[in-house]
Amino acid sequence: MEWGLLILAGIFEMLGVIMINYLHEKRNISSLLLLLISFGASFFLLAIVMEVLPMGVTYAVWTGIGVVGSTLCNILFFGESMNWQRLSFIMLILFTVIGLKFTV
Hints:
The chain is an all-alpha fold. It has one domain (2-103). The protein is built from 4 helices and no strands. The chain has helices at residues 2-25, 29-49, 55-77, 84-103. The radius of gyration is 14 Å and the shape is flat. The two termini are 14 Å apart.
């Protein structure tokens, strides 16, 4: 259960990062509210998970999900550049997060 909550926390963190981009483009109250809700939910879930899983693993997985997810979304939806080096390092982060799951 805690791993599911950790993945959900990472997804909310990813959404929060995406909402920073939206807030930068469209300075309106709905973008700000979605940003606050996304990060609030992410930190709330992260705090719950850290009661069960070790802090280092929890933070690494949470950050990894946020980095990989927000980078891929920015490539797909916001026109950021995509090259083999960037995708290679994204895959490295993803493999590291999966590896951490199997060590705990």
